[in-house]
Structures are given as C-alpha cells and as structure tokens.
Amino acid sequence: MKKAFVIAILLIAACSKNSPQHAIVVPDLVQAANKRGNITGTIKLYDADGKLLTDNSGVTLSIDNSSVNTQTTADGKWTLDSIPYGTYDISYAKTGYGTGKLMGVNHEAVNHATTLIAKHIPVNALSTIEIQSLRIANWDSNPAIASLINAGIAQNGVHIDPVFTNTTGKSKAVRFFFSDSPNVDAANYLVTDKQKFSGAPEQAINSGYELNWFTSNGFTPGQTVYIKAYGDGYVDDAYDNPISGNYLFPSLAVKGSNTLSFVVPLK
Known about the structure:
Layout: H1 2-18, H2 29-34, E1 36-46, E2 60-63, E3 69-71, E4 77-84, E5 86-93, E6 100-107, E7 115-116, E8 121-124, E9 133-138, H3 143-150, E10 157-163, E11 172-179, E12 191-197, E13 208-210, H4 211-216, E14 224-231, E15 239-240, E16 247-248, E17 260-263
Parallel strand pairs: 1-7, 1-8
Antiparallel strand pairs: 1-4, 2-3, 2-5, 5-6, 9-10, 10-13, 11-12, 11-14, 14-17, 15-16
C-alpha cells in the first residue's frame, strides 16, 4: 500500500511539472523521458511591401490535435519543449498575418537532441488588395507585338492586368489561378502564378503569357481558360498540402476578383 502511494505521488508531480507546456498524456514516465526532445525553428515576418520586420514576436505555433503551443521571440525563434518523438503537423498564426502549417514534421531526435527546422518560415502580412477588375487581351491586339508575332520573332499570347486601389505607389503582389473550370478559386485550380503590379487602370498592359506557357501547363490552343486573381503576400510563403496535392497560400486577400475567361491563342 505504501509503495502504491509513492508511485501515485510521482505521477502527480510529473503531470504538474509538464502541464504549463503541454498536455500530452504519457502513461510510462520512464519511457517518455527517454523519447522526448525539443522542436525549434525561426519565423520571419514581412510587411505588405516585402520588408522584413525587426520584431518577429507574437506568432503562436501549435501542434495540431493537442494543447501544445509556444510563441516566437523578437528574433523569430520558437521552441516546443520536451515533445515525445513522432510526426506532427504544426500550425502557426498571428493576427493580421498569414496562417499556415508545417506538415509532417518528423521528430526523432536522439539522446534528447533538438529537432531543428533549418529553413526559416516566411510569414506575410495578409494582403488587403481587392482586385476590382481584370483586363485580358490577346497579344495580337497590340500592334507592336503583333508585328513580332507575324515576323516569327515572338509567339502569340495573352495579356492579363489586374486593376486595384494602391495608395503606396509600390508594386503589389497578385496571384492568378487558372483552370478549365468556371469554379476556379484558390482551392480549385490547375495552375497558379504570381506577379507584381501597380494596380493603376491607366497602366500599359504589361503581363503576358505566351502560347507555350499554356501548352506546357496542360492547356491546348483554342481551349477556354478561366481565371481568378487575389492579392497575395510579397514574399513566397506557399506550402504543399499532401492531402489535396495543391499548394496553399496563407496570405491571400479574403476577396478575389470576378472569374473571367479567355481562349488560348491558336498559334
């Protein structure tokens, strides 16, 4: 009876020590002590113009399906302390910034060594760009380019320009989503591409996709292509979702453009 009481006290003490950091239930304390280690990495915050912030604190990182979490310090460093070995999805979030995941982090440190996420995670401020309209035109409607096409110097292609309000004068990132379906959006697309624009409606048409760009991405001449555009973060922060097979884009604007369509040039 006395022995059972001592074991119970040890279990209570161990639970109390760990509870501020995580709530992973570990039935075998000795085994768990030999199979734990820290997971650590760095997050860098960027503003709407792609400028790296000096204060990278306040980003919350959480192990999915648990109460384990931590926050970044001013230099962007974070540590999840004393985590049992395993494979984890780790979410990260901060108000006003993109929310993303580290998918399938393999945590198998040896002798209590730390699992280091070597590459820093870029996190953009959420885009506030709202695309008011898209201007789409075939290259052959531009006399200067048409002459190059007729001379065989250039391929035909399609101009795509987003129009949006931009008070800073600096170029903003816009991401296009292309599909063969009118239901195209950020989660349902075949091809995506990001470019930077001023947003001014009077700007010259300057974004071009040649015919070979479409054919190399699975479209055919004469095919109808549907497109939708969103404001995006300046720095690339996309990550792969192995379940859907698509990339996810954490800092997209909430609202996208209207869906438009065009026909891939025949030649």
